[in-house]
Amino acid sequence: MRITSVRAFPIRLPRDLASARGTAGSPTSLHGEGIYRWSTAYPVLYSTHFETALIQVRLDNGLEGWGEAQAPLAPEVACTITELLLRPVLESEEFDGSAAGIAALWNRMYSTMRVRGQTGGFMLDAISGVDLALWDLAGKLAGQPVSALLAASPKTTVPAYLSGTTGTTPDERAAFAARFGLPLVKLYFDSDWNDLLRTADSLRSRGMDFAVDALWHLPPASAVEMALQLDARRAHWLECPLYPEEHGQHIELAQSIATPIALGESYRTRHELRPLAGACRILQPDLGRSGLTESMAIAGEFAAKQIVPHVSIAMGPQLAAAIHLAAAAPNCNLCEYNPNVLDTANAFLARPLELTGGVYHVPQTPGLGIVWNERIRELVGGE
Q1: Do 97 and 141 form a contact (C-beta atoms < 8 A)?
Q2: Hey, what CATH topology would domain 150-380 get?
């Protein structure tokens, strides 16, 4: 069989910013005009919309696979890379659905821009979207769920943790979290550290554990002092405490505190993660940035570390891929859950992704388990 087409579709959906604040894709308040606005807490842009990039790969036997690139801003960029750079090196290539064959295609895509310095960022996001589509095809060819291709005895359920809370007071945020019945809740640090600690205490008083996503902006001079307050509260982890470029600062912080540091969403490959191996005990590959091929390689190379897939703005392919990774990797026993994201993804699926009783149910149909409903035509036309 041969690959006959590779297509990419930028997706931009309206979203309710008020209800989304404090959760994936909108963890802080925003200011400015237009679609892309600055966070009020630190210098980074967020979209007022739900943005992602869908990838479709077709074979000459008519079978199609769907993937997704992480694209919370300007999904057109990942789509243009896919159409202009990746499509020409994939179309007409043989595809046998084997892990080795997919890895060879991953390397072929990666090699197109390696010597030009594009070994991360948008380039890897686009590669990852294609990679997920190739694994979807592999599962369909084999008549098996992707997790069964990745592991001999994959899990059929994966525990979930709640990512983000909403509410104006610590008790309101804790009450919001309690509605979901999950034992672990991740809090996003906006700008008031004491307010975050009060929310953590309120969660504890209700019998829930907590983790903290610092969104890369703890003040370096105060980071240790702030993190020691998490030690005292037995935080599950401290995610993304400092700027992603600051490898040395992360290592120094890790050596000064007991709370495990979690990193991964900004680093697409093993090459980017190796300098940070001494700084974290938890790795969080994002399936829309690392794909399944590289995420499994990360889980294998760093087998002594806990793997917890990062899930931000995502539709069905990304979410399903994260669940399959969690089911297959032996050092993974947890997956991120954002209610708004899952609801949005499921709105376009004929067979919704399931989370009941505090666990994700790993899709058992061939491929990633993504079956679109008619609403997808609103986004990708007749495809």
Answers
A1: yes
A2: TIM Barrel (3.20.20)
